[in-house]
Specification:
The complex is a heterodimer of chains A (566) and B (178).
Chain A (H helix, E strand, L loop, with lengths): L6 E3 L6 E3 H32 L8 H34 L8 H23 L17 H30 L9 H31 L8 H12 L1 H22 L6 H14 L16 H9 L4 H23 L8 H4 L6 H24 L13 H28 L8 H27 L22 H34 L17 H8 L10 H26 L6
Antiparallel strand pairs in A: 1-2
Chain B lengths: L16 H27 L7 E4 L2 H15 E5 L2 E4 L6 E7 L2 E3 L1 E5 L4 E7 L4 E6 L3 E5 L3 E7 L5 E7 L11 E7 L3
Parallel strand pairs in B: 3-6, 4-7, 6-12
Antiparallel strand pairs in B: 1-10, 2-3, 4-5, 7-10, 8-9, 8-11, 11-12
Classes of the chains: A mainly alpha (566), B alpha+beta (178).
Chain lengths: 566, 178
């Protein structure tokens, strides 16, 4: 090992930590949080504009804010944070030095320059083309160039991650197979390569078109390839946040997967069965056949959905098994009642799990059904769905693990413990409201990306039902609540990182009920959970399944009421 | 633990029975959802069109104009209201910022509704029926549609098409058969 002096040993976990990996994690996480702040403020202003009684922004600012919101939170916040997760899951969890730290910094700076360039283009006002930038709508050239630089930076980050895996294997920094969390991160990184390549493949010609070198970009082809980035990147998020669920379960409760084999297979399904995810965005397009749509959205058996449904059992199952092993054996749910709900890492993780499954997962499958998409496409139902997956699922999970990264990586004690304790609930409830009320408005036909559903300036009038207006008002209130939750997170994290009490080099941090000696014992017993019973999880999963089936058929019923067409 | 390497031989451990049952149930459910889409193509009345053609904005606009000239029954503000014969090909054109022209259809009759755009992408959203279809320039989609309610229906644009997007509307009237 060439750079042994650059390591420190973590007194809490016993892991050897490469300081250059640690610095990269810090830099990416800090920038991620800054973009969360900016993008979150844009999001709040959008929700307050949609609320008819408030109608905050003028139309051009609304569309500008919507474009910026999409980029800053869906790409910048999440991908910067994912870079931190990749470095954490490779160098840190594998006790390894990071491969090519200079390339790691190239990743960081390229992504930062790209993100700033795209933001500048949007703020200049002539690139309000939405995050999706569908041609023939055209943005300023540096809008696309920024996106391309950002994608190239992220690809370099993936390469550094893969390099680190090779280094760790060569230098035998771990024994046997990689940990499950690292396996999940590998899944995320493999999907990321496909995703970012799709982005580059379509955005480079679009950039050339915007500067006049080529004549045009076919709008249908653009959509097909662009969503290879736009949708598949959400599978990076799913893989990353599922890995984070497992990590938090392990670090806070000492939870072990019920079966390593099953959990890894479930991750593998994401890689194998998600790749034509862009088909979900082509369900009501001209020129795409029904058989193509039906096959490519399901691959005949919905195996990617199966992957998530498996994690939906194994994550709470692992937690139940760990809790029962500690003696919480009374009845079906003592393990859940006595879970550390006051620990924001655990609370955020569990809320993320529940909301991702019930709100995001079910609505996504229903909306991705060929015929049902007809009554939902481009309505507010769509953002309702993906706020449940990306915000309640991914963002909340990332927020939750921050409460562990602050003491472990930034070596600072989390400040304002009370605020931190309430944060996942305030944010989670706000996001649940945003998702549900947008889905409700969408069911009533309210369009997404729309400044004024009263159509005051339109040439012909149409009136939505009063219920639609109520939904938008409730959405605005929920957004305020989520913004408060987001602000609580940022205040706690920023203050802790810069002003929190420094944690000494030998000081052990209490991550959860199992920290210290118990945690070491848990590590010693790692492996499969064997024959433990998980009846509580079976009940939870049963409730989920019944809700899924009912909601699925209710939507077929809605569809059947629409004018006959073929 | 999920953050540590699993013990050797983890791939030989038997799968927990509860997990196995759940995998089978979830797998069967996936198959059921797949066949539901196919089943609906057989028995359902709401299916997406597989009929589409390449076109150009000029060609498409010409077809729209031809229909409008032949069958306009009245003028409503900026819009002609067109009443094409039942069973015929009817055209709706998306452009910044209107759905052109207004149509008057007869309840219970079937029409071949053509949709295209002459500039940007638009979203054809018929409300409150809630039929939502993406409209691309250069592509002409044909929906075979049978209105089964009478009244006045709004068309909203639900694909962003510039700063006037929220002013893009249109209308379809459905009248009872006389």
């Amino acid at each position: 090992m060439t750079a042994a002096t650059n390591f420190r040993t973590c007194p809490t976990t016993g892991l050897k930590i490469d300081r250059s990996a640690e610095n990269l994690i810090k830099a990416n996480a800090v920038v991620a949080v800054v973009f969360l702040l900016i993008g979150g403020l844009f999001g709040l202003s959008i929700a307050l504009t949609r609320w008819p009684a408030v109608h905050l922004l003028p139309a051009d600012w609304f569309y500008l804010a919507l474009t910026a919101h999409g980029f800053d939170v869906l790409l910048a916040w999440i991908i910067f944070f994912e870079m931190a997760v990749l470095y954490f899951a490779s160098a840190i969890l594998l006790n390894s030095r990071i491969a090519a730290p200079r390339w790691g910094w190239a990743q960081f700076w390229l992504m930062l320059v790209g993100a700033l360039m795209t933001n500048v283009a949007v703020l200049q006002g002539n690139s309000s083309v939405m995050f999706t930038s569908y041609p023939p709508l055209v943005a300023a050239p540096h809008f696309y160039l920024g996106l391309v630089l950002f994608a190239v930076g992220a690809l370099i980050g993936c390469a550094v991650f893969f390099g680190t895996l090779v280094v760790a294997r060569d230098e035998k920094t771990y024994e046997g197979s990689v940990p499950l969390v690292t396996f999940g991160a590998i899944t995320a990184a493999i999907i990321a390569v496909f995703t970012l390549a799709c982005g580059a493949i379509i955005l480079i010609p679009t950039f050339l078109w915007s500067v006049g070198i080529i004549n045009g970009v076919d709008p249908l082809m653009y959509k097909l390839v662009w969503w290879g980035m736009g949708h598949s990147s959400q599978q990076i998020n799913v893989s990353a946040h599922v890995a984070v669920w497992y990590a938090i379960g392990a670090m806070v409760l000492g939870a072990k997967p019920i079966s390593e084999k099953v959990s890894r297979m479930a991750f593998l399904m994401y890689i194998l069965f998600l790749q034509l995810a862009s088909a979900h965005h082509m369900l009501v397009e001209p020129g795409v056949s029904s058989s193509w749509k039906i096959f490519n959205t399901s691959y005949a058996m919905y195996l990617a959905v199966l992957g998530s449904m498996i994690h939906g059992m194994t994550v709470p199952g692992a937690i139940e098994a760990a809790q029962r092993a500690k003696g919480y054996n009374k009845g079906l749910f003592e393990w859940l009642r006595k879970a550390p709900w006051g620990n924001p890492a655990f609370a955020g993780m569990f809320l993320s799990l529940v909301m991702f499954g019930f709100l995001g997962g079910i609505s996504g499958v229903v909306m991705g059904t060929e015929q049902i998409n007809l009554i939902m496409h481009n309505t507010l139902y769509v953002p309702g769905h993906f706020h449940a997956t990306v915000v309640a699922g991914t963002t909340l999970a990332f927020m939750a693990i921050t409460y562990l990264l602050v003491p472990l990586i930034f070596r600072r004690e989390v400040m304002f413990k009370k605020i931190a304790q309430w944060q996942p609930y305030v944010f989670g409830l706000g996001i649940a409201g945003i998702s549900l009320f947008m889905m409700g408005a969408g069911t009533l036909g309210v369009p997404r990306r729309h400044w004024d559903i009263t159509f005051a300036d339109a040439l012909s009038q149409f009136q939505f039902s009063p219920a639609a207006f109520l939904m938008l008002a409730l959405n605005g209130l929920s957004a305020i609540m989520a913004a408060i939750g987001g602000a609580m997170y940022i205040v706690v994290v920023v203050c802790s990182v810069f002003l929190g009490r420094r944690i000494g080099d030998t000081e052990v941090v209490q991550l959860g009920p199992v920290s210290g000696a118990a945690s070491a014992a848990a590590v010693a017993r790692y492996g499969n959970e064997g024959t433990l019973k998980i009846p509580g999880t079976v009940v939870l999963v049963g409730v989920f399944f019944v809700s899924f089936v009912l909601y699925y058929f209710v939507n077929w019923k809605y569809l059947a009421e629409v004018w006959p067409l073929k | 633990m999920a953050i540590a390497s699993p013990s050797a031989g983890w791939w030989k451990e038997p799968i927990h029975k509860v997990e196995l049952i759940w995998i089978i149930v979830a797998f069967l459910w996936g198959i059921a959802m797949f066949f539901m889409m196919i089943y609906w193509h057989g028995v359902g009345s709401q299916n997406l069109s597989n009929e589409a053609y390449k076109t150009t904005p000029a060609d498409y606009a010409a077809k729209v104009d031809k229909m409008t000239e032949a069958y306009t029954v009245r003028q409503e503000g900026a819009f002609p209201v067109v009443r094409p014969p039942p069973g015929s090909d009817v055209y709706m054109m998306g452009r910044v910022y209107m759905w052109w022209p207004m149509l008057e259809l007869v309840k219970g009759e079937t029409y071949r509704l053509h949709l295209s755009s002459i500039d940007l992408q638009h979203g054809f959203s018929l409300q409150p029926v809630n039929i939502n279809v993406q409209v691309h320039p250069g592509y002409e989609m044909v929906l075979t549609l049978t209105p089964n309610q009478s009244g006045q229906f709004g068309i909203v644009c639900n694909e962003y098409c510039g700063f006037g997007h929220h002013t893009m509307t249109g209308r379809i009237y459905v009248v009872d058969k006389k």
